[in-house]
Amino acid sequence: MPCYFAIIGAKDNPIYEAEFTNPQLNQFPPELKELNPFILHASLDILEDLQWQAHPQSGASTGTSGGFLRSRSSANNSNCYLGKIDHFYGLAITGYLSYGNMKFVMIHSGNTNSGLPVTIEDGPVKSFYQEVHELYIKTLMNPFYKLNEPITSPVFDSKVRTLAKRYLTK
Amino acid sequence: MSHKIINPSTSVAQHPAPQGYDYTIGPQQTLPDLPQSMGPSSASTFASTGISTTGPSAASAASSTNLASGPSVYSSSLHPLAHTQQVSLAAYAFLFQEMVAQARNASKSVAEIELRLHRHGYHLGVRLLELLNFRSSVNASSRSAFFKTSTAGPSSTSATVSSSAPSAQLHGYHSHGSGDAAGATAAAAAAAAADDGHALAHSISHMKRRDLTMVEILQFVHSTVWTYLFGRPSDDLVKSSDRDNEFMIVDHAPLLTRFISSTNVQCDFFVCGVVEGVLDSACFPCAVTVHSVPDDKFPEKAVFVVRFESAVLEREALRA
């Protein structure tokens, strides 16, 4: 299933973006593809609301807007992985926050033919985010990399794509 | 960055080597091991020649393996026990002295020297926030060893510091008091993690919570950051009775400046920078200053005053 992944910095500036698609089988429809960054940035408001909640994944009980949208399958104490935070016409958007409040956001698209909403499997998606988080920290350990700069390293890029292949494509 | 225009992702790639993420081009589409020439960007560049679609993908695969095999920041492990080399206090003092001298030569006023030291520390703090939190969430078996050594740390390391041994621990988790067995298993785990760079995040079931309140994040600075840098937690964490947004971290004998006799320049501004870097990047904007408050028992006692901006207080009042 095609995904669009982006890392957004503390000043809402793009750090990194990638599309995970398989050219033969599934792609974002061309009219939607250009909208991806807009859809993704539209969900940042919800993400910033969840950022300061003690239990961002506890579901509808928080009583805030967007509470009913999130998947409730993984309710634990961690507040890095936020689960499904938003949706847009059958696309699902998941989010993750690093300790330095870098925003990791991803659009998941289902089968392009059926208009059914996408189901998010929290396990693999969470693992994907955690491993990208580790890669991000390794990037940050580079003394020549400054906070909130775009990550242009080809090694980072290829590692993220390998992770996407392992966790996100079925 | 602002002078370049971000092209739509379907347009033709104009750069000769689209290696890695280029924000002027936009996201690339393909996954590894898929023929790259099927993607729209490369299709439009290579299909016009009408020949060999395997050429570019094979070349890029070869170059990517070259990139992956070379030493890079991505091939070393983040495990707390993967880097146990410790800096001797003498070497460190030499480096810090050079840093102060460089700042002093380049500055015109005392405030400027302090600002330069502050800036050096800031970059360190930004990185420590991510790194130390991530290390705390590494899986349970090595975490227990990690906490054991870090709690065993203070007594032994402070003994080292007070006896002014030359090998005081600047980066000491895994210092003196750790059990050999626990250390050995943890080191083996670290070695295994170093083999495969991804094993570390994969083994984490629950990431450590992000710190959401002023007290939580200050406790992180007080214990975790101080232990990582100086081998012991700071001596006290006090809330100001006068102002709501003011907190104080007390250090009876700052390790960084123990060889610097009292001058009118406060070299502990480096540590202020570290603290401010941690707090700033955790979205707690603040100003940190240091004041030396000598008393009878501790002639070098330093107090780091953290003043949060009013936005932090407002946010906490809203979320409470």
UniProtKB/TrEMBL annotation, chain A:
At the top level, the lineage of the source is Eukaryota
Q: Do you know which Gene3D superfamilies this protein is assigned to? A: 3.30.450.70
Q: Name one Pfam family in it.
A: Sedlin_N
Q: Which GO terms describe its biological process?
A: endoplasmic reticulum to Golgi vesicle-mediated transport; protein-containing complex assembly
Q: What is this protein called?
A: LADA_0H07602g1_1
Any one of the GO CC terms? TRAPPIII protein complex
Organism for this UniProt entry: Lachancea dasiensis
Question: SUPFAM superfamilies from the entry?
Answer: SNARE-like
UniProtKB/TrEMBL annotation, chain B:
Q: Which InterPro entries does its entry note?
A: NO_sig/Golgi_transp_ligand-bd (IPR024096), TRAPP-I_su5 (IPR016696), TRAPP_component (IPR007194)
Q: Which residues cross the membrane?
A: none
Q: Which Gene3D superfamilies match?
A: Trafficking protein particle complex subunit 3 (3.30.1380.20)
One family from Pfam that matches here is TRAPP
- A single Gene Ontology CC term: endoplasmic reticulum
Gene Ontology annotations of biological process type: endoplasmic reticulum to Golgi vesicle-mediated transport
| Localisation per UniProt entry | Endoplasmic reticulum; Golgi apparatus
Where in this protein does the record put region Disordered?
A: 1-50, 149-176
Query: Would you say which domain of life the source belongs to?
Result: Eukaryota
Q: Which GO terms describe its molecular function?
A: guanyl-nucleotide exchange factor activity
Predominant location: endoplasmic reticulum
> Which keywords label this protein?
Endoplasmic reticulum, ER-Golgi transport, Golgi apparatus, Transport
Family (UniProt):
Belongs to the TRAPP small subunits family. BET3 subfamily.
The molecule here is called LADA_0G07404g1_1
